[in-house]
Amino acid sequence: MEVTRKNFKESLNAIYSAIEEADFLAIDGEFSGISDGPSVSSLTNGLDTPEERYQKLKKHSMDFLLFQFGLCTFKYDQSASEYLTKSFNFYIFPKPFSRNSPDIKFVCQSSSIDFLANQGFDFNKVFCNGIPYLNQEEESQLREQFEERRSQSNGSQSFISPSSCKGPINVPDEQKDFVNKVVVSAFLNNALSCSFQRKLIYQTLNWNCHIFCLIFTALQKLLSWLFQKERYILISKVDDDERKRREQEKQEKEQGELNDAVGFSRVIHAVSKSGKLVIGHNMLLDVMHTIHQFYCPLPQELIDFKEVTMCVFPRLLDTKLMASTQPFKELITNTSLAELEKQLKESPFKPLKVESAEGFPRYDTATEQLHEAGYDAYITGLCFISMANYLGTFLTPPRAHISARSKLIEPFFNKLYLMRIIDIPYLNISGPDLQPKRDHVLYVTFPKEWKTSDLYQLFSAFGNIQVSWIDDTSAFVCLSQTDQVQIAVNTSRYAESYRIQTYAEYMENRQDKQTCRRWTESGWTKSPYSTSPAVSSYGYSNNKTPAERRNMSPIQEEQASDGMEEPEDDGDAPGSARPQPEAPAAAATQGKSRKHKRKAQGELPPYGQPLSPSRVQAALSI
Amino acid sequence: MEVTRKNFKESLNAIYSAIEEADFLAIDGEFSGISDGPSVSSLTNGLDTPEERYQKLKKHSMDFLLFQFGLCTFKYDQSASEYLTKSFNFYIFPKPFSRNSPDIKFVCQSSSIDFLANQGFDFNKVFCNGIPYLNQEEESQLREQFEERRSQSNGSQSFISPSSCKGPINVPDEQKDFVNKVVVSAFLNNALSCSFQRKLIYQTLNWNCHIFCLIFTALQKLLSWLFQKERYILISKVDDDERKRREQEKQEKEQGELNDAVGFSRVIHAVSKSGKLVIGHNMLLDVMHTIHQFYCPLPQELIDFKEVTMCVFPRLLDTKLMASTQPFKELITNTSLAELEKQLKESPFKPLKVESAEGFPRYDTATEQLHEAGYDAYITGLCFISMANYLGTFLTPPRAHISARSKLIEPFFNKLYLMRIIDIPYLNISGPDLQPKRDHVLYVTFPKEWKTSDLYQLFSAFGNIQVSWIDDTSAFVCLSQTDQVQIAVNTSRYAESYRIQTYAEYMENRQDKQTCRRWTESGWTKSPYSTSPAVSSYGYSNNKTPAERRNMSPIQEEQASDGMEEPEDDGDAPGSARPQPEAPAAAATQGKSRKHKRKAQGELPPYGQPLSPSRVQAALSI
């Protein structure tokens, strides 16, 4: 169901009840851009720490607008053994609701806009009919103003708002008689008797606009003086019932306006309050944007972001992470959403029984509508069901249907896929992150003329290496043998053009330890999932030893992704923004961009094999 | 005529000939936003210097996208005594033309987007079918790459591009025989005989992607070595005619791709090369955006911006400035484009004979299509014709038609309207700017709690004052009597909470003198227009003495604009972005935004009377 500003109000009850009755929810967002930094590759270093990645995404991605939000609810019908889905595709735009409302500026990235345009995205629906929204602070400000006005008018009708007086002004019953004696004439006499105000009013007698401004100042001062002395003013007095009726009408109208302004945020609040499992595909950016846009500016520190996320979405599941983990990683060669959906239609996965609920249009996965957020949310949900049901085949006796409440899927809760980090597959939202040893990693600085090939040459004596560019003059180099690290560092001691440090030295310099210590203090050091029986049964086992993995060259790992024909655009990284391996002929003619391209190649992670043995070890050892 | 990416190429000849045959051109731009600063009022202080205003616009307005460009050409048909118009409405979008092209990020301001959406603006046309463009630097980079490739292939077919070799590689005739002897096998043998490269290739034998990258490095090194020794390589040799044919085909294709990428910039280049008079309404932002987007990033200094502008647009005319100047300012109460167009249909202005050229759709001014750039350009041209013809009534004998080449309009050339500056009506593009004395102006700093009313109170002994807010803790205060300035400064000497400086002291501290000195050095101190007979005949006369003006209170001046019902949205300042005087009731209930609103009111200039007597004096005295 398409939801714009035009049908939002009338659709709200349907949305609320869909969320209420659902077994789980799937979401997806479309954004006006991905990275306002120099390039996506600078956003994703293969050896980022989770903290670094969070900071980069926060800095370079939050100025874009989440302008389409897909929500698909899934309800299991036991009797028919099928899922009923209700899919909503929301268009979102921060239309200023009044002259005082914030005038939001957002960035658009032409590659992302062009990508969406090619997918038939309807920008007019966003900009002309997008549903407005407020974050929590904007909402409370508006609510406060509304409460203030209500309290002020409650008991004292037609009162000129003394906006300099903080808090509501309630006239106590025992004071009302006294208040009634104070009338407008006395009030104005009072005002005029004050020579300062009289002079001001006299001066400005012919002034058209400023006169109001000045009289208000005078009135304010007088009012605050009166209030200090516990005196109260009623300028006009109307029939009590009539007054109450008018008041109620006005309040209802204002409450309506407030709700309209909160707009789409109400949907997110409902999702949050439901506490239901929320599924997404490669969903870190979706979660960050959702919190940033509808709750609050993202916290400075990753640990605080995790806390906020757990408040907003107590249970998350990322299908890209699930598909990249045992037992699925052996079965799935390409984890991009569209490819994953296709592969999950084949054996050993079972066909699904999923129907659109009455009154909801049916999505046809044969005629793809990729990158419409509602459709992407729908197929994300399908992927989850396929994979969850597959886990049921491991049980004795096997079960065909695995519910969203099953213990079997708990190991995947609150772990969000981390794009292109070599040895940390996910961000652990409800606990500390994996801390892989990285004792085979070197931090190398060099002149800005250096290319990847120079690094390969420098380390040619050390066997296969893997290069992750940080910026123009530095990179991480992973050696295949940890015991060679010290040799490399020692060898470089007298080098003039470059400098080599161990990863530990590098981290020490960055003083990143503070964040780690915070984890310990808050008692999150013990993973809630490490002892889960589900983990050992299928979750984190791997046949390759770390040594075997380290003997793979980066290119061997890259080959694993060669079958991938499309760029891996999971809705959060559309189109040309993502560097792709290029054909040699193109590389030869595009000399100017060669260096950049090589960097991008150098840091591409092994697609389809994000869980390396060393990572799994780390996961099991926590 | 609507022009998008789809019909751009086929329309180009029509556009070129329309520009070529025109007597003058009118332009207008629509942007994705106006100010990314905190508010428009912070962008426009009533006592900005032209330098300050330029810096502010450059800093806070250039990240927006000019995404619709209107061009209307006007050709006078002597025999029919009528103008023939050709109007073009271009949709513009920086679609990346290849994977290496710049990925432009631009900002959208929700109030501006909402404003355009309400006007029926078609965002899909912009984002899906917008015409691409390049600025000068991007174009030359692309052209250079293209030339490089052409030179490389010229004479040496199928050559692997040695991208590290700068400049074209031409094989001299006398060397060709020698070159022909060097064949691929020898070449590769050579490469492999070099142990360094062999080792590299060996190491990477199983690597799928990096092998190319590495072989290229090896080849490059070898090639540069060969070239140093004046040896040349031809890998394959084909029939000469066939080679030339292929080469030409390839070059034509590349030239076509280059032209496609330059896209809309070609239209602006044609306008520029024509040297024709270019008319706009309140056109400073249009000119800045046009130069920024299609030529080069705006220069740091205003004086350099003026120089660039004169190169791109040698003759400009701003109808808002024209309408705000004698003799029109007495006749025109509201200079916003839509109102101006209406007023110029009434007496004493004469009806126009204007027809759309064959094949061009006719705009009907009765059914307004305001804020479609093509329409706005069209009525801007109409306004110019009406006002120009009116000047003809001053001649003896009077003339009904005044051409775009007439001396009568020259005084208006290259003066761009400056929004809301009290005493400098325009930016003088082809000369030094007016330097009004401002010896009645004080610079006041105070605690951030102060409001406009506090300043009125502070200066209550000094008669009428005018306040122009700079930021939260400072403002300019204009006194009515210059001789009171020193009294005010002296009085404040022992004040603790605030501080008063003369304008001269303030400017001295800001060390703005450097820029002024540059003007003198470049010999622009003498205005080319001050002695123009046209000026004294009708241009800059005024009945009010400076003293009379100074006795006007700011509110009296503001009243002059009360007749203005619409916000003054000239296409460059749409919607709610512009502060408007607010009704007193609203002010009373909107306590939170009161301070800001007052500031906005305080700095509103006298609409419809931008040329104050003091300014005219200044204009005449230069």
TrEMBL record, chains A, B:
<dbReference type="GO" id="GO:0005737">
    <property type="term" value="C:cytoplasm"/>
</dbReference>
<comment type="similarity">
    <text>Belongs to the CAF1 family.</text>
</comment>
<dbReference type="InterPro" id="IPR036867">
    <property type="entry name" value="R3H_dom_sf"/>
</dbReference>
<dbReference type="GO" id="GO:0046872">
    <property type="term" value="F:metal ion binding"/>
</dbReference>
<dbReference type="GO" id="GO:0003723">
    <property type="term" value="F:RNA binding"/>
</dbReference>
<keyword id="KW-0539">Nucleus</keyword>
<dbReference type="InterPro" id="IPR051181">
    <property type="entry name" value="CAF1_poly(A)_ribonucleases"/>
</dbReference>
<dbReference type="GO" id="GO:0004535">
    <property type="term" value="F:poly(A)-specific ribonuclease activity"/>
</dbReference>
<dbReference type="InterPro" id="IPR012337">
    <property type="entry name" value="RNaseH-like_sf"/>
</dbReference>
<dbReference type="Pfam" id="PF08675">
    <property type="entry name" value="RNA_bind"/>
</dbReference>
<keyword id="KW-0694">RNA-binding</keyword>
<keyword id="KW-0479">Metal-binding</keyword>
<dbReference type="InterPro" id="IPR006941">
    <property type="entry name" value="RNase_CAF1"/>
</dbReference>
<dbReference type="InterPro" id="IPR036397">
    <property type="entry name" value="RNaseH_sf"/>
</dbReference>
<feature type="compositionally biased region" description="Low complexity">
    <location>
        <begin position="577"/>
        <end position="588"/>
    </location>
</feature>
<feature type="compositionally biased region" description="Acidic residues">
    <location>
        <begin position="559"/>
        <end position="572"/>
    </location>
</feature>
<feature type="region of interest" description="Disordered">
    <location>
        <begin position="511"/>
        <end position="622"/>
    </location>
</feature>
<dbReference type="GO" id="GO:0000289">
    <property type="term" value="P:nuclear-transcribed mRNA poly(A) tail shortening"/>
</dbReference>
<dbReference type="GO" id="GO:1990432">
    <property type="term" value="P:siRNA 3'-end processing"/>
</dbReference>
<keyword id="KW-0540">Nuclease</keyword>
<feature type="compositionally biased region" description="Basic and acidic residues">
    <location>
        <begin position="511"/>
        <end position="520"/>
    </location>
</feature>
<keyword id="KW-0269">Exonuclease</keyword>
<protein>
    <recommendedName>
        <fullName>Poly(A)-specific ribonuclease PARN</fullName>
        <ecNumber>3.1.13.4</ecNumber>
    </recommendedName>
</protein>
<keyword id="KW-0378">Hydrolase</keyword>
<dbReference type="GO" id="GO:1990431">
    <property type="term" value="P:priRNA 3'-end processing"/>
</dbReference>
<dbReference type="InterPro" id="IPR014789">
    <property type="entry name" value="PolyA-riboNase_RNA-binding"/>
</dbReference>
<feature type="domain" description="Poly(A)-specific ribonuclease RNA-binding">
    <location>
        <begin position="431"/>
        <end position="508"/>
    </location>
</feature>
<feature type="region of interest" description="Disordered">
    <location>
        <begin position="144"/>
        <end position="165"/>
    </location>
</feature>
<keyword id="KW-0963">Cytoplasm</keyword>
<feature type="compositionally biased region" description="Polar residues">
    <location>
        <begin position="522"/>
        <end position="545"/>
    </location>
</feature>
<feature type="compositionally biased region" description="Polar residues">
    <location>
        <begin position="154"/>
        <end position="164"/>
    </location>
</feature>
<dbReference type="Pfam" id="PF04857">
    <property type="entry name" value="CAF1"/>
</dbReference>
<dbReference type="InterPro" id="IPR012677">
    <property type="entry name" value="Nucleotide-bd_a/b_plait_sf"/>
</dbReference>
<dbReference type="InterPro" id="IPR035979">
    <property type="entry name" value="RBD_domain_sf"/>
</dbReference>
<dbReference type="GO" id="GO:0005634">
    <property type="term" value="C:nucleus"/>
</dbReference>
